[in-house]
Specification:
about 25% strand, alpha+beta, globular, Alpha-Beta Plaits, about 120 residues, 6 strands
Length: about 120
């Protein structure tokens, strides 16, 4: 078992300090990270808490999984390693810029009809 925990169902207005406080009641917290949208910077409703020891991590799962935190039931379990992401860049042949949209300008026009 690892020391890093996944925490889901976090209230959107919760702060990393709020999360640290509730986990600190169980054991010593090494780090807290709430995941946010890169454009809006709003919480995505989940995050990660890293406990100092594996024993504290186990206790946190047992004590907090399913507990109501800020009017929401949270999910706490061991974080799984991140899977490698597929390449989502341009030119990868899967419908990037100007591809697969049915004609000039990517507007779905039928060939030969053009604009009216």
């Amino acid at each position: 078992m690892g020391k890093k925990l996944y925490v889901g169902g976090i209230a959107f207005h919760a702060t990393e300090e709020d999360l640290k406080k509730i986990f600190s009641e169980i054991g010593e917290v090494e780090s807290v990270k709430i995941i946010t949208d890169s454009f809006s910077e709003r919480s995505k409703g989940f995050g990660f808490v890293e406990m100092v020891t594996e024993e504290d991590a186990k206790k946190a799962i047992e004590a907090l999984n399913g507990k109501t935190f800020m009017d929401r039931s949270i999910v706490v379990n061991e974080a799984k390693p991140q899977r490698p992401r597929e390449n989502r860049g341009f030119g990868d042949g899967r419908g990037g810029f100007g591809q697969g949209r049915g004609g000039p300008g990517g507007r779905g026009t039928k060939p030969g009809r053009g604009r009216r």
